[in-house]
Amino acid sequence: MSLRLIGTLALACAAWCVFSTLSFGQGAGGGGGGGGTTTTVTTQQVAGVIVDADGVLKMHKFADPGGRLTRTRIASSRARLDPKIASRSKLRKISLNRMEQAAVERMERGEPLADDMLYLAGMTRLQYVFFYPETNDIVIAGPAEGWATDLSGRVRGYETGRPVIELQDLVVALRSFPPGAGETPVVSCSIDPTQEGLQNMQQFLRAMGGRAVPSQTRRIINGLRKSLGLQTITLKGIPADTHFAEVLVEADYRMKMIGIGLERTRVKNLKSYVDFADPATVARNALRRWYFVPNYECVRISDDELGMELVGQGVKLVGADELVTADGSRVGAGSSDRASKKFVHGFTKMYPELAAKVPVYAQLRNCIDLVVAAAFIREQDFYGRAGWLMDVFGDEAAFSVQSGHAPEKVESAVAAYWRGSRRAATLMTPIGGGVNIQPRLAFSPENLLNDEQGHVAAERQEISIEGLGDGQWWWD
Question: Residue 369 belongs to what domain range?
Fold first, then answer.
C-alpha cells in the first residue's frame, strides 16, 4: 500500500515530543495564602527551553518523581519569605518610581536586589496602571502571592501555579517605550526556514516522487528535516538576549508543535491542526503560518486618563496561508485553509485554560500586558508628569537585563500522519509565523473600551499612597 506525499508544511520551530507540565498549586484550594495552605503537586515533570553556546534553542524536560524536589522548594520559599508578601493578595500595588529608588539605594550599598523586587512582590498579572499627580507615583496593580522556582527555572506562585512577573521583563517593556524621544512601535518574534532550506526540501520531495511505501516514512521525515536544516529566529523591538525574548520564542515554538501534533497538552478540548486536516483537501506545498497577536480590545481607560485596566485574556492566535515555489520562495495562497481556521479559533478560545496549565503561555500574556502598559505610560506622559527619568532601569549599563544567550536557530521538526482508506499521509513541518505586538493599536478608537461605569476611576481612588514608609514600594 502506497503513501501519497501531500507535503503540507505547517509552522515554525524545533524538535519536541509529548510532555506534561508541573502544576504548582492547582487543586490546592483557593484560600487567601499564608503558611497554612497545602500545596498539591499534580504532575512530576516540567519543561522549558535552553539556548546553547551556538544560539540553538532546544527543549528540555525536568523530572521530579513524586514531586519531592518541588515540595522542598516550596517549603523553603515559605520559610524564607515574609508572611506579608507570601500571603495571597487580590490587588497588590507597586510604585514603579519608588521601586527604582529602592533599587538604587541597595545598589549604592553594594547589596544585590532582593527577591521581592526581582519578582515584583509576587504579582502574577498586571491588571491596572494608575498615576497620582499629588505624589508623582506611577503605580501598577494586580493579583499576587508567594512564589518558588520550579525545576525548569520558572518562578511561579505556589498557590495558583501562575508565573510571577519578573522585574527584568518589566524593564524590557519600559525600555521599549522610554521617557523622552524614541519608542518601539512593534515587538515581534519570528521563526522561519531559509530559502535555501525550502529549495532543498522541494528537491527532496521531487526525488521521492508522488508515492512511497509505509516503510519509507522514517526516511521521508529524516530527509525533510535534514533538507530544511536549521530555521532562523528573528526578534525585533527588544534585545534578543533577554528573558522577555526567550518567552516569546518558547511560546511561539511550542504553539507550532501543538499545531502539528508533536506536543499534547492537558487541555482536554484543545485540538491540533492535524486533528482538523483532511489529507484529501490539503494543497501540496501549502504553508500554515500562525501568529500570536494581542487581543487589542483589552484596554479600558478612565475618563480623566489617570488609570488604565487590562481586561480579557489579552492574546489571540491568527493564521496566514502561503505556498512555497520550486526555488524556495513563498507566495500568498489567496485563501485560508478551513482546518487552519478551526485550529487558530480553538487555540484562542482555549487560551485561558492553556495558560493555566502550561506556564509559558501565561508568561506570554504577561509580556504582552507589560508592553501595552508601557505604551500607556508613555502615551499619557506619566514619565514627564512624575519627573521620572528612569535613569537606572532605563540604562543597560546601570541595570543589566541582557544576560542570556540570544536564541538564533532551531532545528526543523516534521510530523507524518496516516489517514483514510487509501492510507494517504500528511507531512508537516514548522514554517514561519511568530509573535507580533503593536501595543498602541489598543488605544485606537475602534479598540478602546469605555469606562462607562467609572470602574477604573473608582479602583484608582480606592488606593491610598499616604502612610507608606521610607523605602516602601509595594503594599496591599
Answer: 3-475
